[in-house]
Amino acid sequence: MVTLSSWIIACLFLFQSCEKEELSFVSGDIEIEIKTGDHWLHDFPLFLGLTKKNPPQFAIWIEDTSGNYVSTVFVTSKIATEGWQLNKGNRRKESLPYWCHQRGIVYEDGLLLPTKKHPLTDGITGATPKEDKIIKLTPVNLEKPFVIKAEFNHSVDFNNDYPKNAQEGDANYSGGAEGSGQPAVVYAATIYPDTKNAVLELIGHSSPDGSTGVLYPDLQTLTTAKSIVKSINLTIR
Fold first, then answer.
1. Are 17 and 29 within 8 A, CB to CB?
2. What angle do CA 75, 56, 129 make, to 5 degrees?
3. What is the number of alpha carbons within 13 Å of residue 31 lying toward its C-beta?
4. Pairwise CA distance, residues 176 & 167, whole Å
């Protein structure tokens, strides 16, 4: 259940997500530029050997320097509205578990992902872009320093360490044949009062099966997941 205090915190921000040519900035606005990597688009199997080029699901949010969740800046609509296609009722808790656990909102089925009945508001959601993306944040009463984080994930992005045939209960199980494969990757940057430019650095990966909010700093088992994103650059205007 969303508390009054969390609603007030959410109202401290005005978000606008647009294509680059549509944006205009004023002093103090924050520009978050996501540059796509070599594996931004991923082959998702459909049927009869057909595949579809899918962009990743992702979320961007703000925390204080103690690691407490403040507010979500942007989240892709499939996560925000339970808009998965062909998921056969699978809520895909392995998709963005770090963001979900940081938010800490439990829904009616006991999971931490938004539902069709209780989606996130339109102002912070949108379709996953298939190319570079600029997100504009106009902060109100946002005290520095703060931390901005982002989490990215592909479905069925299997490799040798996270195979399709991993079994539930195994350390490398990630949701089965239609799960994530490689777990979600997490980026972060701390924004100080004098920060004008920052680059979000890759700091770890999420729980493979989505059962916890643990962040794992060891990235040796990841391959293509590390090149979903080329860079995430932040500029304060």
1. no
2. 70
3. 21
4. 7
The pLDDT of residue 125 is: 85
**52: number of Cβ within 10 Å:** 11
Number of residues assigned to the chain: 237
Average pLDDT over residues 72-99: 85
**Whole-structure pTM value:** 0.87
Rounded Cα gap, residues 185 and 205, in angstroms: 4
The residues spanned by each domain of the chain are 33-236
Q: At which residue do the structure tokens 């539902």 appear? A: 115
Q: Burial of 47 by CB count in 10 Å (0-12 exposed, 13-18 middle, 19+ buried)?
A: exposed
Q: What is the pLDDT of residue 6?
A: 35
And the tokens for 40? 């931004």
**Number of Cβ within a 10 Å radius of residue 34:** 25
Gap between the Cα atoms of 141 and 164, Å rounded = 46
List the one residue out of 231, 227, 205 whose CA is nearest residue 218.
205
Q: 121: which 2 tokens? A: 């508001």
- Mean pLDDT in residue range 37-56: 82
**Per-residue DSSP letter, 71:** E
pLDDT band at 12 (very low <50, low <70, confident <90, very high): very low
Beta-bridged to residue 59, according to DSSP, are 75, 151
Q: What is the pLDDT of residues 136-181, one digit of tens each?
A: 888 878 889 999 999 999 999 999 999 999 999 999 999 998 899 9
Separation of alpha carbons 134 and 15, rounded Å: 12
Token pair 């931004």: residue: 40
